[in-house]
Fold:
Amino acid sequence: MNLHTQPTFLWYCSVYAHKYSNQLRDTCKHFFSGKGIPPSHSDKLKVVKEYYSKYKPSVFVETGTYLGHMLHSVHSWFLQTHSIELDPIFHTRAVNLFSKFPSVIIHLGDSTTVLPKVIESINEPILFWLDAHYFGGVTAFGMEETPILKELQAIFQHPIKNHIILIDDARCFTGENGYPTPIDLTEFVAKYRPDLLCDIRRDVIRIVPKA
Structure:
């Protein structure tokens, strides 16, 4: 066991201080810009449940495990769940947390290289929750601040063409720090997969088959 990848008390203090300071910052930013209160985890879980109920996939793939909140909420819905985490300490924590659930597999590495390997042997529709991006503090910084376009390219190149793709933190898509704008993202999807619909609501980008 590598002690350098084990969460410590000070690590937990740092993580939760960062988490709640970010929540406070986002809440204030949204409220004073006239957008109201930003969606909570419960709100986003409802979005995942909506698309799970509609399409009934049996496989869930997440990028950006972080504290494992989304994975913990949804893993029992699926026969197979995968989560990719870049930071070794967050990865070790998640492995320990989900060790009693054989259907949950936690992968360590950059999603731009790990995601294609995870999905290459899956031959059915997947519900994706893409949330791998640098968010300051103790979160990990990969080759890019956000790997979203490379993640989407990997998914679009997969032989199964009716995946359900949900992307968290749509508010970050401002055209800065490596993020495309919503218009750029919509055009990217239309260029590579014109059969898919790109919709943005309540801080979640939804890329799904057109009806």
